[in-house]
């Protein structure tokens, strides 16, 4: 015990260094996403996160969007507690058999127009859980998916870029003759 205590005084922290600040890129993408939401919806974008069976790695990155560094609410993107208030469902993980019904009900409870974003490699095709007896497969096996953001887990900035691409796509589809 004394040895451990002594070592802890001199050993460097084992945690990874924080990523370099990329404020300019964050501001640019988040502001563009907020503007695209207002153009398309006339208001802020409301997101409901659904964990369909993930390992929680993707959730940690999604939660980071709301922390003091990313703080995406200042750009008009907010996470809501009910699918009835949501425009976008961000779904993580492979869909487990136990979560299949809950995901379907969440989708049905979300008012139109709605978009589904599958977040992470597991949400695409089951990822590292593919073939498990406990899962149905990727999110698209259960509900229609509009966008997939790959990564294990994807970084918060990649999620923002994905949301922006989705909004720009639906925006241009809406104005197309
Ligand atoms: S993509 Fe990676 S981090 Fe996300 S749920 Fe799957 S294993 Fe976890």
Major sheet: order of its strands?
Answer: 2-1-3-5-7
Shape: globular
Spans where pLDDT lies below 50 across 5 or more residues: none
- Order of helical and strand elements: HHEHEEEHEHEEH
Arithmetic mean of pLDDT: 86
Estimated share of beta-strand residues: 15-25%
Broad structural category = alpha/beta
Q: How far is the N terminus from the C terminus? A: 74 Å
Count of DSSP helices?
6
Each distinct ligand = iron/sulfur cluster
Helix percent reads 40-55%
Rg computed from alpha carbons, rounded to a whole number of angstroms: 19 Å
Written account of the structure:
The protein has 177 residues and is α/β, with parallel strands linked by helices. Helices cover 42% and strands 16% of the residues. It contains six helices and seven strands. The strands form two sheets. Strands 2-1-3-5-7 form a five-stranded parallel β-sheet, sandwiched between helices. The protein has a two-stranded antiparallel sheet with strand order 4-6. The chain is globular, with a radius of gyration of 19 Å. The protein starts with a helix and ends with a helix. The structure holds iron/sulfur cluster. Iron/sulfur cluster (SF4) binds next to helix 3 and helix 5.
Short description:
The chain has helices at 2-10, 23-41, 57-64, 97-109, 121-125, 156-175, and strands at residues 45-51, 77-79, 88-92, 95-96, 115-119, 135-137, 147-149. The chain is α/β, with parallel strands linked by helices. The strands form 2 sheets. A 5-stranded parallel beta sheet has the order 2-1-3-5-7, sandwiched between helices. It has a two-stranded antiparallel sheet with strand order 4-6.
